[in-house]
Amino acid sequence: MKKLFLMILLICAVSQSADAKKPKQQKVENIIYMIGDGMGLTHVSMLELENKYAPTSFDRADNIALTRTYSANNRVTDSAASGTALATGYKTNNGWLGITPEGEEVESIIAKAEKRNFATGLVATYAIQHATPASFYAHVKNRGDYTNITKQFMSSNIDVVLGGGIKHFERVFREMGMDFQEELGKKGYKVCKTWGEIQQQTSGQVFGLIADDNMPAIEKRQPNFLADATAKSLKILSNNVKQNKHKGFVLMVEGSQIDGRSHGRDVAGILGEMRDFDKAVRVAMDFADRTPGTLVVVVADHETGGLSIPSSKTDFTLPESGIGYNFGTSSHTAALIPVYLYGTGAEQVNGIMENTELSWKLQRLIGVSEK
């Protein structure tokens, strides 16, 4: 009996020693939520093919999962319903933002994070009133209701917002007999109307909308805007975390115009927008490399175009058969969407899931979920 007791003690000691040697799991403190609007797996495949298989940022992923994208009332979602699912964790009807089919307003991961002392930011190459960015702060039954979407931005406390959509602020506040810059200033924002002004900012609340509506197409846009805006947002948010003792930050970055070029079946335009988004993802992953506690999540709201890459010939004994880019539609599709995860907590998001479940998983990782 004595020998048995000693053996049990020895086993317990060895077990405790092994547990002590295990590295503690790093807590997720920052989430960089990167949404390629309309980007399916074939869009990523195009990028790799045209880069002659040179490594892309997508190749760096620590983990990959899949999401289903259908909305509450349609097997094929639009950006409003899918944006709401990714932002809030709730399915809704196509065209609706931040409201369930039952009419309940639901909060996004950004809104919840703000209430729990996180810094927050939005970056887009469309107007920030557009469906995906708006799904992180607005509650309307019509995604085209830019008047109320703009007003509802003022009720948010998002630290950094970079992109387009300034004319909607000018119009809405002019109709109310108010000056939007003055009102934003009262909320503590530094209003920037040029990229040069944005570059000067290092902390605080920064409102940097530098296009009347959507940002220009990739051919006319400031080179590397999305990557540079991502880097600038990360710098500002990181400094805000340090200075204001925030728990961390949540930043949403949208490669908005992949979708529009896919609607137009524009191969060159898609490739340009994909390369632009790839640069921004690289910036985010590099930040995660030097900032423990950061999780980069790269996903799409849906696939656009039904893009396929068929062989040009059926004779596969040839050294090269060639390829083509074909489109099955000029609309959205119901295809599953890949999720690329990098950094702290990447191993905790797995399998095939609803787009809503991805949102809940991220909310739980930073401790802002009620589920």
CATH architecture verdict: 3-Layer(aba) Sandwich
Strand content: 15-25%
**Termini Cα gap:** 48 Å
**Roughly what is the average pLDDT, rounded to an integer?**
94
User: Which CATH class is shown?
Assistant: Alpha Beta
Total strand count, please? Answer: 14
Q: What attributes does this structure have?
A:
10-stranded mixed beta sheet; globular; Alkaline Phosphatase, subunit A; 18% strand; alpha/beta; 13 helices; two-stranded antiparallel sheet; 371 residues
What does this entry look like structurally?
The protein has one domain (26-158, 224-365): Alkaline Phosphatase, subunit A, CATH 3.40.720. The protein is α/β, with parallel strands linked by helices and 371 residues long. 47% of the residues are buried. The strands form three sheets. A ten-stranded mixed sheet has the order 5-6-4-3-7-1-8-13-2-14, sandwiched between helices. Strands 9-12 form a two-stranded antiparallel ribbon. The protein contains 13 helices and 14 strands. Helix 9 (195-199) links the parallel strand 5 (189-192) and strand 6 (205-209). Mean pLDDT is 94; it is low at 18-23.
Task: Chart the SSEs and their pairings.
Blueprint: H1 2-21, E1 30-36, H2 41-50, E2 63-68, H3 79-88, H4 109-115, E3 119-127, H5 131-134, H6 146-153, E4 160-164, H7 166-175, H8 180-186, E5 189-192, H9 195-199, E6 205-209, H10 225-244, E7 249-255, H11 258-263, H12 267-290, E8 294-299, E9 303-304, E10 307-308, E11 326-327, E12 332-333, E13 337-343, E14 352-354, H13 355-365
Parallel strand pairs: 1-7, 1-8, 2-14, 3-4, 3-7, 4-6, 5-6
Antiparallel strand pairs: 2-13, 8-13, 9-12, 10-11
Helix pairs in contact: 2-12, 3-13, 10-12
